[in-house]
Amino acid sequence: MTAQQQLLQILKHKIQHDELVLPTLPDVALKVRQRSAEPDISLNEMADVIAQDPALAARMIKVANSAFMGRSIKVTTLNQAVTRIGLSQIRNIAIAMALEQVFVSKHKQVQKQLDMLWQNSIEVASISAACLAYYNSQVGRSGLNKDVLTLMALVHNIGALPLITEAERQQDLLGDSRFLLFLTTNLATQVSVRILNVWGFADEFQQVALNWQKLEPCNPGPDYTDFIRLANIARDGYSDKEQEQRLLKYYMNMHMAPQENFMLHPDIQTVYQDVRTVFS
The HDOD domain covers which part of the protein (predicted)? Predict the structure, then answer.
């Protein structure tokens, strides 16, 4: 039995018996989520929660000043940033900004793979948000929220994280990008749903993680999953190219994308760069 086959058996066994070590949501993200659920929470109190993590506080000021928020006047304090973002958005954006803390390993090769996974998640988030903005410009309000979509995109394949971390035990496999890609596309779905359930994410997040790899449009749609699928199409993320092309044409007919090479469209490219900048 090869090392790959051994690792696959170990991973499948741990998934089936719920023995895989799952990542935990950063403390500050948990506090933001808990406090944001309080009906009488004030903006100043929320700023105090975020201030407990200086790195997150700096990121929130950056978000408030970004084109992502559509504002031009700069803010300089966390209280100003939280006021600009607003309580309705602060929860999802703060959790999204804190998530990078999860993608950490002491093992150099594992960290390299986790960095790639995080950057891929940022790409999917940036592309899907840009396509949603384009869609809204074509058909009016879709009822879909850009910061909810951004957070969904960041966690849509979160199950790949503990699988890569578990692969640390087979260090000779960490450099095999094809094998790791197999792990993250074939085993991660069930793990992603489990993590999001443990983290207390809403069912719609779990449905995205469960269904994004299926090359079938949501009905009725478009839905959040459709925009994450579209982002993965842009990244050439599906092996069934014929079905991928059919789905892309469907999305074009739905005005979710203007053309086959839609990432070249200036409106999409502008929003894509704006979202990328938030995470840089």
Answer: 22-215
Are both 85 and 170 inside the same structural domain? Answer: no
Answer yes or no: do 138 and 205 share one domain: yes
Q: What residue has token string 């996974």? A: 117
Q: Give per-residue pLDDT as tens, 38-90.
A: 989 998 999 999 999 999 999 999 999 988 777 667 889 999 999 999 888 88
Count of structural domains within the chain: 2
Q: What is the pLDDT of residues 265-278, one digit of tens each?
A: 999 999 999 999 98
**One domain for residues 249 and 160:** yes
pTM of the complete model: 0.90
Buried b (16+ CB within 10 A) or exposed e, 122-142: bbbbbbbbbbbbbbeeeeeeb
- With a CB cutoff of 8 Å and minimum separation 6, the contacts of 173 are 3, 4, 7, 167, 179, 180
Half-sphere exposure of 77 (CA within 13 A, CB side): 7
- Domain interval for residue 46: 26-101
